[in-house]
Specification:
By secondary structure, this protein is α/β, with parallel strands linked by helices. It is built from twelve helices and twelve strands. The protein is elongated. The mean pLDDT is 87.
Length: 310
């Protein structure tokens, strides 16, 4: 009798295009994958996969099989999520996270996942959005919290939150007691996210004007580095102000009062469309709850800092 394990194996071989990829995804060996596929083909009485040039592609019968395999695996995942004990949600979820999220609500999300799904493990990678997007499309991670939403075919996205970008400076620069113009800001180096990110390009565009001195733009993939440099008075940090609530409260940084506005960063949870994405969607739902709660709390705190500056 055909079992779910063989059907799931077939589905991932087709999706990933190789026995090796399916073995890594299912945490087993290539010989085990080959054995399951051979058993499934014997039971079905037809050839399901072509194995030419090291790429596994479905035969006409295999394409028909994929339609039913996706339905069966999807229904099984849905059944386990709705009817089964939460502890039945098990395995490893590879999660890619933009660093802004690490500095805001990610710890609360991880704690909640540990409590609600005790048998679901998270493997967390922190990187910039372009790199995480590439890894998601390569199926090296299952879920990404990135600047988005992504508009790539086959990718589902759920908006999490918006974070306003602020101009943040050490009190030693003497900019916190009055409105600051674009020209005032341009006298100092700007410190922000790395190249190829939206904030970096936005900052460059704001100050790339003939009536202003050439921009001095420092970029770092480490927000801790950006914050430390700003505290030391080495420039003005251009990052979401929610990241530095402690520094603002302690007076180590000031949120500058300026009419130079940058578009907020919209973060989304993104994942590849898949019949067994129930666990991914559940974690994305949890992430949205914590993100929205974080925005409500941090928004009130930021308003308080803006009043102080004014």
């Amino acid at each position: 009798m055909t079992d779910f394990r063989s059907i799931e194996t077939f589905l991932w071989v087709v999706k990933l295009g190789s026995f090796r990829g399916a073995a890594q995804r299912l945490n087993t060996t290539q010989p085990a994958i080959s054995q399951r596929i051979a058993q499934l083909e014997r039971e079905m009485g037809v050839k399901l996969l072509n194995r030419d040039h090291r790429v596994a592609s479905p035969t006409p019968s295999g394409r028909q099989m994929m339609v039913y395999a996706e339905k069966l695996i999807g229904l099984r995942s849905e059944m386990m999520a709705e009817v089964g004990d939460r502890s039945a949600m098990r395995g490893v979820l590879r999660l890619g996270v933009a660093e802004t999220i690490v500095h805001t609500w990610l710890p609360r999300l991880v704690k909640s996942v540990n409590e609600i799904y005790p048998n679901l493990s998270l493997e967390i990678e922190v990187d910039i959005t372009p790199n995480l997007t590439a890894r998601l499309l390569a199926q090296e991670i299952e879920l990404a919290f990135v600047v988005g939403p992504l508009s790539t075919p086959g990718v589902q996205s759920r908006v999490l939150c918006d974070y306003q970008i602020g101009f943040l400076a050490s009190p030693s620069l003497g900019l916190g007691n009055a409105p600051v113009t674009r020209r005032d800001l341009a006298r100092f180096p700007m410190i922000t996210f790395p190249r190829k990110t939206k904030p970096y390009e936005a900052v460059r565009a704001v100050f790339d004007r003939p009536d202003l001195p050439p921009i001095r733009l420092h970029a770092s993939a480490s927000l801790a580095t950006v914050i430390h440099m700003a505290i030391e008075g080495l420039g003005i940090a251009v990052i979401p102000s929610v990241i530095v609530e402690n520094e603002l409260t302690a007076g180590r940084l000031q949120l500058l009062d300026t009419d130079v506005k940058l578009a907020p960063l919209t973060f989304s949870a993104s994942w590849l469309t898949s019949p067994d994405a129930v666990a991914v969607e559940r974690v994305a739902d949890l992430a949205r709850q914590f993100a929205q709660a974080s925005v409500a709390v941090d928004g009130a705190a930021t308003a308080g800092h803006e009043k102080t500056v004014a």
